[in-house]
Design brief:
By secondary structure, the chain is of the alpha/beta class. It contains 12 helices and 8 strands. Strand 2 (80-87), helix 3 and strand 3 form a beta-alpha-beta unit.
């Protein structure tokens, strides 16, 4: 019985730490955002010349609409240029882009060999005329005023990078719908609050902007180019913030395999990026980002799935221990009744689905950690079927 209660105590400790890291940080940042907000000096009519950079690889189904919609954004027509970087596509992406380049509507540069998104970005930066770069994915849909809302923030000289408000458009699968809900609440809102006190903890390539003079160029072996942009810019002393008024939409992966593949890659990239900029961890030089936001993000990504695994493995022992007491048996019976009731109602089923979603995320994250340790990831991103 001593061993049983030892395992049960380990389960209890893991459960408590899981709650603290998962929900505690969320509410801590919310509170800090209300009492320690650092305002951004936005200027409504700030509209400098900008370069819009679109990396492209096998996006023939989306690139025509992307170019057309980008040409129609709500921004002075003489104040922006569009640079498309075509990286060794095997479909007709290049021929579609060539039609726009031939009429002078865009600048088109071509990499004969696909070397990864970071390499494509560097290739594009070399021909950009502006210091303010707006980068967007070829399959992401922008609202007309999204670019204008991003750029306003650069009137504040302390801002080095800005990321848009990403909405993942879910497919019909339950796992995709849960990912949409999770991202909206625990990711997008969280980085908005983090931005108010210092800088966001993660970045998105669907739509972001940065100062070229600060970033200079990306390391081309990087797995997550968007995370590198965030960390490199913040390491230079500039804030990296989220702009909630800059909306961008992207279809989510349509199946479980696509979800796991994406999460594996981002996890491996999180580890790589954190280690590359480890000098910022717990460094007061970087304010709340260095002391709280950056280390908390890394610990949440790496530690939470391990804690969850401990909870899952030791749950049978904890249940058996609790059953040995009347209170424990009563709590277990109550839990079974609650789960049964949840299955009856629509909102209850969503809660149950969220539990299954957490399991898929855990599998993906642990796989991503394994990929990084075994060096199984590369800078080349894989095309994932979208809903």
């Amino acid at each position: 019985m001593d061993i049983l209660w030892l395992l049960t105590n380990i389960w209890i400790v893991a459960f408590i730490f899981f709650i603290i890291f998962y929900f505690g940080y969320f509410f801590l940042v919310l509170i800090l955002a209300k009492i320690k907000e650092k305002n951004i000096r936005k200027v409504e009519d700030f509209a400098p010349f900008i370069s819009i950079l679109i990396p492209c690889y096998n996006v023939s189904s989306a690139i025509d609409n992307k170019i057309k919609s980008t040409l129609e954004i709500d921004y002075p027509k003489d104040k922006f240029e569009i640079i498309a970087v075509e990286s060794g596509s095997t479909d007709n992406t290049y021929s579609i882009l060539s039609k726009y380049a031939d009429t002078g509507k865009i600048k088109l540069v071509r990499q004969p060999e696909r070397l990864g998104k970071s390499s494509a970005i560097n290739f594009g930066l070399s021909v950009c005329s502006s210091d303010i770069i707006v980068m967007t994915d070829a399959d992401a849909s922008l609202e007309k005023n999204s670019v204008k809302e991003l750029v306003k923030n650069f009137a504040d000289e302390t801002v080095g990078a800005v990321v848009g408000n990403v909405t993942l458009v879910p497919s019909k699968s339950v796992i995709s719908k849960m990912n949409h809900l999770f991202y909206k609440i625990f990711r997008q809102k969280l980085r908005e609050w983090e931005s108010r006190i210092d800088s966001a903890s993660f970045w998105s390539g669907e739509l972001c902007a940065f100062r070229k003079s600060v970033l200079e160029k990306l390391d081309e072996d990087i797995i997550n180019d968007d995370r590198y942009i965030l960390l490199k810019t913040r390491s230079k002393g500039y804030r990296c913030i989220s702009e909630p008024s800059s909306y961008v939409f992207e279809k989510d992966a349509e199946n479980v395999l696509g979800q796991i593949t994406h999460k594996r890659r981002t996890t491996a990239g999180t580890i790589q990026g954190t280690l590359r900029f480890k000098q910022m961890l717990f460094n007061p030089k970087y304010g709340l980002f260095g002391m709280l936001i950056f280390p908390a993000h890394f610990l949440r990504v790496i530690l939470l799935p391990i804690l969850l695994l401990i909870i899952e493995v030791l749950s049978p022992f904890a249940i058996f221990a609790f059953l040995s007491s009347f209170i424990g048996a009563a709590l277990l019976a109550a839990a079974i009744i609650v789960l049964a009731l949840l299955g009856i109602f629509d909102k209850g089923r969503k809660i149950l689905f969220s539990i299954s979603y957490a399991v898929f995320i855990q599998i993906a994250i642990i796989s991503g950690i394994t990929d990084y340790v075994l060096k199984r990831q590369s800078p080349l991103w894989k095309m994932i079927a979208k809903g």
